Structures are given as C-alpha cells and as structure tokens.
C-alpha cells in the first residue's frame, strides 16, 4: 500500500435533517486529495475526491462545516472552494466557487453564504447557489 503524507485534518459536526443521522466527520487532506470519514465508525462518507479535478489539482487548505445544514466547504490552492451537499453518500458537489486569489480562510456566514479571505486581506462574501445539478457555477465576487 502506498503511503501518503497527511497535511490536514478538519473535524466538524455534520448536521442533517434527522437528528439521529448527525455525525462527527473528519475531512482528511493528503497530497492533492481529501476524504471524509465518520469519526465514530471509521466509515468513508466521501471520497477520495478523485473525480473533483478543480479541487484535486491543488492542495486542500481548509474544510469547514455549516452549522445548520448538511454542507461542507473545501478550499484549495487552486483558487476555488467546492461546496458539497453532505446529505448524500458520497457527497455531491453543490457548487464550485472560483476565486481571484488563493483562499486562506473560509467560514459559513449562513447556510446561503460563505465568507472567504485571502492572505492579502481581501474578504469576499459568496452566495452558495441553490441545489442544482450544475457543477460549473460561476459567481460574482462581492468584495
């Protein structure tokens, strides 16, 4: 088995519509990929992210969990943030948000918006598009 260096583990509580389905999830970032794992059972709930080339082509920098919805945002050096609907297994990509610069910090402002900052101090509030099958969502960055 090939050994791969892990460069980040991001743990959060994954909210679902049914309280009994809530779980603590770890997003493990390695090389140019990531995988979501149920902390209690060890079950892989997402990934590896080999099919998400826009995020996989670069190092994953951060993963954050929405507080009231089953959403996970994964930021990468590729100047993109992928937002996943975690109510499905594997997670389905809800949006791919292009950024002008590499993100250094990401947070959910609500279940409808992300706040993204870069190392130059620019902060963007990005709307998360409604759940559709369109994975190439373009956005207008609101600075």
Low-confidence stretches: 134-142
User: How many domains comprise the coordinates?
Assistant: 1
Helix run count: 1
**Topology as a string of helices (H) and strands (E):** EEEEHEEEEEEE
- Strand element count: 11
Nearest-angstrom radius of gyration? 14 Å
Shape: globular
Q: N-to-C terminal Cα separation, in Å?
A: 45 Å
Query: Strand arrangement, largest sheet?
Result: 1-2-3-4
Instruction: Tell me the major beta sheet.
Output: 4 strands, antiparallel
Q: Any idea of the CATH topology?
A: Methylamine Dehydrogenase, Chain H
- Assembly of the depicted chains: single chain
Secondary structure class reads mainly beta
CATH class, anyone? Mainly Beta
**CATH architecture assignment name:** 7 Propeller
Q: Percentage of helical residues?
A: under 10%
Fold and architecture overview:
It contains one helix and eleven strands. 34% of the residues are buried. The longest helix has 4 residues, at 53-56. By secondary structure, it is mainly beta. It has one helix at 53-56; strands spanning 6-14, 23-30, 33-38, 44-46, 60-65, 71-76, 80-85, 92-98, 103-108, 113-118, 123-127.
Task: Provide a concise account of the structure shown.
With 143 residues, the protein is mainly beta. It contains one helix and eleven strands. The model is unreliable at 134-142 (pLDDT under 50).
Give the helices and strands, then pairings.
Elements: E1 6-14, E2 23-30, E3 33-38, E4 44-46, H1 53-56, E5 60-65, E6 71-76, E7 80-85, E8 92-98, E9 103-108, E10 113-118, E11 123-127
């Amino acid at each position: 088995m090939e050994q791969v260096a892990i460069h980040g583990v991001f743990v959060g509580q994954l909210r679902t519509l049914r309280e009994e389905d809530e779980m603590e999830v770890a997003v493990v970032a390695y090389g140019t990929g990531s995988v979501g794992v149920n902390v209690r059972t060890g079950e892989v709930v997402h990934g590896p992210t080999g099919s998400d080339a826009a995020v996989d082509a670069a190092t994953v920098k951060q993963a954050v969990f929405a507080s009231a919805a089953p959403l996970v945002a994964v930021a990468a050096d590729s100047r993109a943030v992928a937002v996943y609907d975690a109510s499905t297994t594997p997670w389905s990509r809800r949006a791919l948000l292009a950024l002008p610069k590499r993100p250094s910090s990401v947070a959910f402002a609500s279940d409808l918006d992300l706040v993204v900052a870069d190392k130059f101090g620019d902060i963007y509030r990005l709307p998360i598009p409604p759940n559709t099958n369109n994975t190439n969502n373009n956005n207008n960055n609101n600075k």
